[in-house]
């Protein structure tokens, strides 16, 4: 995914009242990780300390939080910029209101993923975990090389047990059903 | 001293950062820390937290439950794994409803999370369990000729509520451990800044700019090497250094070492034993200086 001028413009389009879901913020405030979204008073500490915001033309954590508070559900969840957060947790540690900004963004990403909006890399990693336990497909050559490097054999995943444990997880059901969500 | 741990390798290290594993095992063995392999493994869950918090909780809890069955505490080399396992352990111990829900998932494969294991990152084991004194007494070739810089990375420090280790704004542990080898650890601009790794694949532009900043800041103070303790940070600086040099038409030439490689040199292990050959950025100048300085 690349950052596009389109996403920049989407965030700046006039807000129509029909877009607003006034209950969205309350829904978020009942979810694990975004309980404190209502406490954000838009000081901007998160954005000014965000390493990604320094180089991205579009990613602004404060703006994402504000859009969520306003109830712009679709605009937030469909936004490419949501996926730019590096989860460095600088915003979380420095927020004077203890909003746990990075966790709010994670909740929003989870909701976007349930709609099928996650970047492909996450679907690949989920499939890999289901197949082998590992998030990356570890090349056979690497596994064999361990012996010559004096390393013990790599612990094996138990795909059957992993699958059993993940039964009922929405994202996995979508990955399993179609190979990728929607 | 707690000296027996279940080693949790994570995914990135066996995938492409074997020098970190090789050097860590060598150093820990010399320091008397016994490592037991995981009987069964799955990803800690962190990479999937963005798409499913529930999936992350289940994957992490599975590993914690496996460790509990072994009756051992966990050591990780990857701060991401350490942070995730610590965080999930804390969340599930405190939230009974959530614990029951997650245990409902684990039951399917005969596991149960009880909250009886502790997870520590390599750095924490070195400072808290092995101890500075023992480390110092194992130094046979003090690296007094070297001036290096450290990079902690994010997940060993933040979010502080869950990690509870060192000061995220002004971390000291890695510096102290570097100085225990005899090397000088230099201060530089934005030491605690993110390496950019999590943005790779979403925006390479942002990721590489962040790594470039770091390399520039480290170069500014004339550090002879950058010392990391995270497989992802290491990939950003070592694997990508040449790419960043080409991209921005700049030259850094800064070797990027895993901390146990630096410690291992000071403990008298050879560069071959510490898998220096696995590093991308040329380390011959650095090793030559170490060899000359130690005579």
How does this model look, in words?
The complex is a heterodimer of chains A (182) and B (295). Chain A is mostly helical and 182 residues long. Chain A has twelve helices and no strands. In chain A, α9 (120-132) packs across α11. Chain B is 48% helix and 10% strand. Chain B contains 14 helices and eight strands. Chain B starts with a strand and ends with a helix. The relative contact order of chain B is 0.14.
Shape of chain A: elongated
Low-confidence stretches of chain B: none
Individual helix count of chain A: 12
Count of β-strands of chain B: 8
Largest β-sheet summary of chain A: none
- Under CATH, the homologous superfamily of the largest domain in chain A reads Alpha-helical ferredoxin
What's the total helix number of chain B?
14
Q: According to CATH, what is the class of the largest domain in chain B?
A: Alpha Beta
Name the biggest interface. A-B, 66 and 58 residues
Layout of secondary structure:
The complex is a heterodimer of chains A (182) and B (295).
Chain A: H1 5-12, H2 24-29, H3 45-49, H4 51-55, H5 61-70, H6 73-77, H7 90-94, H8 101-114, H9 120-132, H10 140-148, H11 159-165, H12 170-178
Helix pairs in contact in A: 9-11
Chain B: E1 4-8, H1 12-16, H2 18-30, E2 34-37, H3 53-70, E3 73-76, H4 79-94, H5 96-107, E4 119-121, H6 122-130, H7 132-137, E5 147-151, H8 160-163, H9 173-180, E6 184-186, H10 204-220, E7 226-228, H11 231-239, H12 241-248, E8 256-258, H13 259-266, H14 284-293
Parallel strand pairs in B: 1-2, 1-3, 3-4, 5-6, 5-7, 7-8
Helix pairs in contact in B: 2-13, 3-4, 3-5, 4-5, 10-12
């Amino acid at each position: 995914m690349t950052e596009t001028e389109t996403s920049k413009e989407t965030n700046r389009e006039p807000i129509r009242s029909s877009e607003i879901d006034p209950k969205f913020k309350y829904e978020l405030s009942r979810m694990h990780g975004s309980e404190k979204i209502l406490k954000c008073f838009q000081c901007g500490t998160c954005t000014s300390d965000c390493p990604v915001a320094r180089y991205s033309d579009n990613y602004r954590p404060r703006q994402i939080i504000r859009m969520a508070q306003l109830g712009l559900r679709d605009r937030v969840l469909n936004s490419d910029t949501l996926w730019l957060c590096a989860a460095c947790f600088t915003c979380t540690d420095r927020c004077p209101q203890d909003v746990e900004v990075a966790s709010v963004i994670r909740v929003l990403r989870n909701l976007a993923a349930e709609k099928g909006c996650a970047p492909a890399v996450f679907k690949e990693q989920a499939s890999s975990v289901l197949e082998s336990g590992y998030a990356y497909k570890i090349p056979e050559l690497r596994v064999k090389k361990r012996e010559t490097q004096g390393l013990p054999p790599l612990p094996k995943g138990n795909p059957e047990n992993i699958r059993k444990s993940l039964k009922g997880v929405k994202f996995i059901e979508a990955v399993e059903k179609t190979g990728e969500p929607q | 001293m707690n000296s027996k741990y279940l080693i949790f390798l994570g995914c990135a290290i066996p995938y492409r950062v074997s020098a970190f594993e090789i050097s860590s095992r060598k150093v820990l063995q010399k320091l008397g820390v016994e490592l037991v392999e995981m009987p069964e493994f799955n990803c800690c869950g962190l990479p999937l937290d963005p798409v499913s918090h529930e999936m992350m909780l289940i994957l992490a809890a599975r590993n914690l439950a496996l460790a509990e069955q072994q009756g051992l505490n966990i050591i990780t080399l990857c701060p991401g794994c350490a942070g995730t396992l610590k965080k999930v352990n804390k969340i599930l111990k405190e939230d009974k409803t959530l614990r029951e829900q997650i245990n409902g998932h684990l039951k399917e494969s005969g596991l149960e999370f009880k909250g009886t294991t502790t997870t520590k990152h390599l750095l924490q084991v070195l400072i808290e369990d092995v101890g500075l004194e023992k480390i110092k007494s194992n130094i046979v070739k003090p690296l007094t000729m070297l001036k290096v810089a450290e990079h902690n990375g994010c997940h060993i420090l933040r979010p502080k509520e869950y990690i509870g280790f060192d000061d995220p704004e002004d971390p000291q542990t890695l510096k102290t451990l570097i100085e225990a080898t005899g090397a000088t650890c230099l201060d530089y601009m934005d030491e605690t800044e993110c390496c950019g790794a999590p943005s790779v694949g979403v925006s390479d532009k942002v990721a590489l700019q962040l790594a470039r900043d770091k390399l520039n800041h480290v170069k500014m103070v004339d550090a002879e090497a950058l010392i990391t303790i995270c497989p992802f940070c290491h990939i950003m600086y070592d694997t990508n250094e040449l790419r960043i040099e080409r991209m921005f038409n700049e030259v850094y030439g800064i070797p990027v070492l895993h901390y146990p490689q630096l410690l291992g040199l000071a403990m008298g292990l050879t560069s071959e034993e510490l898998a220096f050959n696995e590093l991308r950025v040329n380390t011959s100048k650095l090793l030559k200086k170490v060899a000359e300085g130690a005579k």
